[in-house]
Each structure stands twice: as structure tokens, then as C-alpha cells.
Amino acid sequence: MLEVRGVSVRYGQSAPALRSLDLKAGPGRVTAVVGGNGAGKSTLMKAVSGALGFDSGRLVEGEILLEGKPVHRLGPTALVRRGIAHVPEGRRVFADLTVEENLRAGAATVRGRVQERLDEAYGMFEVLARRRRQRAVLLSGGEQQMLAIARGLMSGPRLLLLDEPSLGLAPKVVERIGEIISLIREQGTGVLVVEQNAAMALSVADDGYVLEQGSAVLSGTAAQLRATDEVQQLYLGGSGTADELLQFADRAPLQRWSA
Ligand code: ATP
Q1: Distance of CA 123 to the CA centre of its chain
Q2: Best residue for ligand 1 mutational test, from 9, 34, 41 (most atoms within 8 Å of Cβ)
Q3: Closest alpha carbon to 205 in 229, 221, 216
Q4: What is the CATH number of domain 2-255?
Q5: What confidence score (pLDDT) does residue 215 get?
Q6: Is 128 a residue whose pLDDT tops 70?
Q7: In the chain, where the domains are located
Q8: What values do phi and psi take at 112, rounded to 5?
């Protein structure tokens, strides 16, 4: 279980990118965090994966706990060893390395079981098995995203962090990514996914949060979120008129359902 407790993050002297955020990602569950541009989604991923320092971000308040133990002072390598793997936005595969070399790089900080995990990756991502000796630069955007996810799984994480996995991909590929997230959960790995594509994320998730300006403004089960007018209109492409949308402008800053 991952628990984000009252976390605020700043970059330099600018306004906080996360503001007293509370969030939980249960073991073996898919937790979706949806929100628009600049809501703080990538900042959340960086805070949980120990990567804030690379962008001169600082956790200025709160704590992040994994299985009850504080982990917010650990760096990325230590966090991978504790079972958290981060698939950053924009895929960032090693373009000049082959598919297999990329996968092996994902297992670099953990010991053993590399061949077994490669076999699992090729079982789950058949397209990668076929192209294992090709350089990653030759893969399509969708295939590179699959490679980035497979590389994240190579460390055998308990929790996989996915930052906007659907970004820039065709609807059919986005659908496939949704299926892969479900498969990962079936194998017992928890997933924390942040997405602008709320339809995809909330369709595969068990639990969800809506993030706006660094705060969780709504949270509940994914089914509860999908059913709210606000999420329908603002995030699921509802046909709300300007007047209908205005009714949400003064809503309470934080609503919670008991999950
Ligand atoms: P997007 O969907 O556009 O990627 P996001 O929800 O992931 O957005 P973040 O990238 O976390 O949002 O940004 C949250 C806020 O923090 C924004 O106001 C952004 O301008 C600011 N921010 C993000 N990275 C930095 C940085 N390296 N330095 C300064 N400010 C930053």
C-alpha cells in the first residue's frame, strides 16, 4: 500500500505544484489520477519515484509511506529496490539500444531472475518478442510505449507508476494499453496511472482521484467517479453547455466517498 499524506511540492520559488495532497494506492489495485494540463500529475509521479530532485522540485510538506514506512527521502534506485517502478511521460526508451537491451536495462538495479522476467515480458508483449533484436528507434510510438511499460516491469515491482501512457497514441493502441494495465493487475502488481485521458484511465481503474491545481478535488471508486455529472461533463467529453459547466465552478474543494 502506498500512502501520500498531506504532500506539498514546490519547484524553486513558484506556487506549489502539489498542495496538501492525500492519496492511497492499494496493493494489487489500479488507481487512476486524472486531471488536465498542469494539474500536478507528473509531479506526483516524480514525488513517488524519488525523481523530484532532477527537476529541482522539493517535497516541502507531508510524507509518502510504502507499507507504512516513509520513503519520500529515498532516491530512485532505492525506491526501485523497494518495489516502485516509474514509466515516465514521453516513453524515453533508449533509442539506440535494442528492445532486449532496453528490457535488460530495466532490471539493472535488481538481482537475479532476468531471463525469467524477459520471458514474462515477451509473453505479455508479443510484438516485443518479434522485434527483440531491433533498435528501439525503429518501433512505432505505441510499440515504444509497450517497451517502456515492459521495461518498468523488469524490476518486478509491487507498484508500477504510469505517467500518461496514452499520450499521442491512436485509439486502438490506447485500448490495448488499457488491456495491458488490467493484465498487470491480474498478475498481482498494483498500478498508479496518471492520465489526461480520463475515459481510458477510469474504465480500467478500481479507484480514482481528480486532481486540479495540485489538490484532489474528487475521489472514490472509479465507478463512482464515472457516474458523477462533474466527471462526465469535465473529463469524459460530456456535452455540457457553458451554463451546465458553471454549476461546478463553486463546488466544495474536496469531496470524498467512503470506498
Ligand atoms: P501535463 O498533463 O501537462 O503534463 P501535469 O498534470 O503532469 O501536466 P505537472 O507537470 O506536474 O502537471 O506540473 C504541475 C505544475 O508544476 C505546473 O504549474 C507546472 O508549470 C509546474 N512545473 C512542473 N515542472 C516544473 C519544473 N521543472 N520547474 C518549474 N515548474 C514546474
Answers
A1: 22
A2: 41
A3: 221
A4: 3.40.50.300
A5: 94
A6: yes
A7: 2-255
A8: 75, 175
